[in-house]
Amino acid sequence: MGDINRLASQAQEILGRDAVLQDEQSLQFYGRDWIKDFKPAPSLVVLPAAAEQVQAVVRLCKESGTPLVPSGGRTGLSGGATAAHGEVVISLERMRKIFEVNRIDRTLTCEAGVVLERIQAAASESGLYFPVDFSTRGSSQIGGNLATNAGGIRVIKYGNIRDWAVGLVAVTGNGDLVRLNGALFKNNTGYDLRHLLIGSEGTLGIITEATLRLVTPPKDTARVLCGLRSNDDILPLLAFCRDSLRDLSAFEFMERRAMQEVLHHRGLRDPLSKQHPAYILVECELNDQAAPQHLTETFGKAYEEGLIVDVVVSESRAQAQELMNLRDLISETLSSHYTLHKNDISVPVPAIPAFLHELHSAINEAYPGLRVVVFGHVGDGNLHVNVLKTSSIGDAEFWQQCRQADHTIFSLVQKHRGSISAEHGVGLLKREFLPYSRSEEEIEIMRGIKRAFDPAGILNPGKIFQAKHDESPPQKR
Ligand SMILES: Cc1cc2nc3c(=O)[nH]c(=O)nc-3n(C[C@H](O)[C@H](O)[C@H](O)COP(=O)(O)OP(=O)(O)OC[C@H]3O[C@@H](n4cnc5c(N)ncnc54)[C@H](O)[C@@H]3O)c2cc1C
């Protein structure tokens, strides 16, 4: 690693004094993401305001052999934006221009530091729609969303953010500014490098600009909360909804405990008449006049057929929002009230009930001090497995048991041919577990791709897989 003070003054010449931060508060603030599992220890924070400035910083770091950590809204849940080894954090928060909303080809082009919610709003102001959505919409940035191939609640209808990225501009670890696919919808000229950058967690390039696809907005949206007798009813209900609802846009699962925590801690009213072992929140777009009535009839039929035992269909936008809040608020509610270890996994959809059953049995049997609460985007096979500390164990024992429990959970994921990270990425948190989901051969190919984009290994080293020179794992809490 080069002389950091020299690097800081060179960066100041390029970016200006106020765009280079070295005070302890800034280092702590920019050095970690949402999980706060790792102790931040960056040596410098830089705030470029244009792609050329990003390029200049990467070149400086390459010359001096200084590692860089790209930083978006730092809402990541895998430690991907953590700088724990004296790295330079490069935050794109000053790069927040929306260049264009093109109504002809229905695209939006913006800098990578634009927050997701602003993209949704800009699309809406032009009468269009950007459907990727999740609860950190107000703080996560499009660069971070693309670097993690973010998912969210509407993947069942609209796919992951990968499906919405028409073109990217990025700076590679070599300091080259590359334009990947521009604004083309058809381009079969060899490898699609754009898709390598998407989901690469800042290890291949720093995304500086994105062109995103937009669509016609739905006329309206309704939500339906269903009470289920057991997790065994999830799949029959999903099949029924897919058959009956043309515009199914979300199919979200909450265990009873997840729902009760939100109702209790947020002081909300239970919209259903009593508690149930499992809940499904359905979102459906209403694109024709008969749709609201069709929705009510459909869920009446589901009730008659015994697929659900309780139901409420939203009758206004406000009520639809109230129902979505029950799902949206789970993550933050659990984090505010418990010592908690989060896991985000996926298994093939048909394996969901068996996986849930095996998960609860395995954890209850082997780790009585841990309590598992599950919710998630079950229509995509994506479950958020939250491990909560109970009062029977102390903090140190909790973290130690979580490490063991991770192996138990990931063995089950592997058994069902699932993924140890569905939408949050690998980052630092899951890199040691990567072999549960990826073969040695695959990991070696990934290392080769990393070398091609970043020959000096300066971009987010140690994330996804261990960097060769990275002898010590980062310090955990
Ligand atoms: C309450 C809560 C709910 C969430 N729900 C969801 C959900 O439903 N679906 C979902 O997918 N995620 C979810 N997340 C996770 C998180 O919000 C997403 O991963 C988000 O896409 C991260 O964006 P960010 O800007 O905060 O990125 P950061 O956390 O800053 O960074 C994430 C990764 O991207 C890299 N990176 C950041 N910017 C760039 C760039 N410009 N170029 C290259 N690399 C970059 C970083 O180095 C890091 O590896 C949730 C998080 C929280 C806290």
Please explain how this structure is put together.
With 477 residues, this protein is of the alpha+beta class. The protein folds into 4 domains: 4-91, Uridine Diphospho-n-acetylenolpyruvylglucosamine Reductase, domain 2, CATH 3.30.43; 98-213, Uridine Diphospho-n-acetylenolpyruvylglucosamine Reductase, domain 3 (2-Layer Sandwich); 220-330, Alpha-Beta Plaits, CATH 3.30.70; 338-415, Alpha-Beta Plaits (2-Layer Sandwich). 34% of the residues lie in helices and 20% in strands. The chain has helices at 4-15, 24-30, 51-64, 116-125, 142-147, 155-158, 193-197, 234-244, 256-266, 291-304, 317-328, 330-337, 352-366, 395-415, 440-453; strands at residues 20-21, 44-46, 68-71, 88-91, 98-102, 107-111, 165-172, 177-180, 205-213, 220-228, 248-255, 278-286, 310-313, 340-346, 370-376, 382-389. The strands form 3 sheets. The chain has a 7-stranded antiparallel beta sheet, sandwiched between helices. It has a 5-stranded antiparallel beta sheet with strand order 5-6-9-7-8, sandwiched between helices. Helix 1 packs antiparallel against helix 3, helix 9 packs across helix 12 and helix 13 runs antiparallel to helix 14. 48% of the residues are buried. Flavin-adenine dinucleotide is lined by residues 33-34, 69-77, 80-81, 92, 112, 134-136, 140-141, 143-145, 147-148, 150-152, 201-202, 206-207, 331-332, 423-424, 427, 460, 463.
Keywords:
4 domains; Uridine Diphospho-n-acetylenolpyruvylglucosamine Reductase, domain 2; Alpha-Beta Plaits; Uridine Diphospho-n-acetylenolpyruvylglucosamine Reductase, domain 3; alpha+beta; 477 residues; binds flavin-adenine dinucleotide; seven-stranded antiparallel β-sheet
